[in-house]
Amino acid sequence: MAYRYLTRQDAWHLYKARADNAPEDVKSREKVHGDGAVLEVDSLVEDCSNFVESLSDATTVPAHAYEGNIGRFLHEHLRGQEAIDDPRFWLWLSLGPLAEIVVDRSTRFNVEYTQRIVGLGPTKEGFLYRSFLRADLGYDENAPSLDERYRHALVGDQDFWVSHVIRLSFAARKDILHSIVRFQYPGLKDDPLLAPGTHPLGMRLLAKRIRRVSSTTSLVFVDATEWEGILEELASRQELETIPVVKRDGKPDSSRIRMLETLISDGKVKLLRKLPSDQNPREYQVMTACLRADGTPYQKGSAGP
Predict the structure, then answer these.
(1) What is the pLDDT of residue 59?
(2) What tens digit of pLDDT does each residue of 190-217 get?
(3) String of DSSP letters for 189-240
């Protein structure tokens, strides 16, 4: 099926116009790829618009649930279409039919409206595409109802999906990805098991360990029923970990240093050494398990609240 798209040059022009509060009609720059009937998105736009209109303010739904629901609508309407593999199609959606939804995502949650959010940076960082990808990876085609098929996609913050799930090379094995979602969010409730976000010893550390093991072992061939045990082992294992304590500009990350020193003082993490020196550390080498959201080390059999 044919579909509409924008070149990056035209997309940049439309983005700048909208960023300057002088939006232009996408029809003046859109192009069509392919022959025959053109993919229509009117019903998709209607579903997304109705969802946003049902929200009274930013407190109605957290940002990740907002993305999860938009992703579901995108997936329901576009799944299986050739257009989804073309970054130019997502530029057209973001700056054309769903432009107001993208702007709402920014203003509602106080996120700057940048070129990345419309897909002019890495494609996976564009709001609409990453939301679609989240729904696609979270989709369970064996679930008995439509709502249940998307239940994995509706939990987890943006960092969990973008930094961890999407980057794990298990796209062909959604059952494995779903196991990871259920491990971090027991009962598929928005109550993370391991420390979420940028905490270096929580979910980030587990994802790091999964990548480390999968680089030497074909975990993609492991039966899904074995994954609960694998995740328990990786999360509970006491291993040597190197934790950077400087920012990108080279300055000390004082908040991370304080956090590590508190964990060491409380006996939750064992310090081995500071490198290159105790007086001017750039990284801490510690023995640790993954830490739960409450800051305690994860132990086998302790999944759940």
Answers:
(1) 57
(2) 899 999 988 999 999 999 998 888 776 6
(3) -S--SB--TT-TTTHHHHHHHHHHHHTTS-GGGS-GGGHHHHHHHHHH--EE
State the Cα–Cα distance between residues 185 and 9, nearest whole angstrom: 41
Tokens read off for 199: 């905490």
Distance in angstroms (rounded) separating the CA atoms of residues 272 and 287: 7
Q: Where are the domains of the chain?
A: 3-154, 238-288
Please state whether the predicted TM-score (pTM) of the whole model is above 0.90. Answer: no
Q: Which 3 state secondary structure label does DSSP give 31?
A: strand
228-255 pLDDT, tens digit each: 888 999 999 999 999 999 999 999 999 9
Specify which residues 21 forms β-bridges with.
none
Strand, helix or coil for residue 124: helix
Of 178, 169, 179, 184, nearest to 220 by C-alpha is 169
Nearest one of 75, 130, 74 to 97, comparing CA atoms: 74
Whole-angstrom Cα distance, residue 160 to residue 266? Answer: 27
Token output for 88: 């130019």
Both tokens of 302, joined, read 């302790």
Give the distance, in angstroms, between the CA of residue 105 and the centroid of all CA atoms in the same chain: 15
Given the structure tokens 């702007």, which residue do they identify? 103
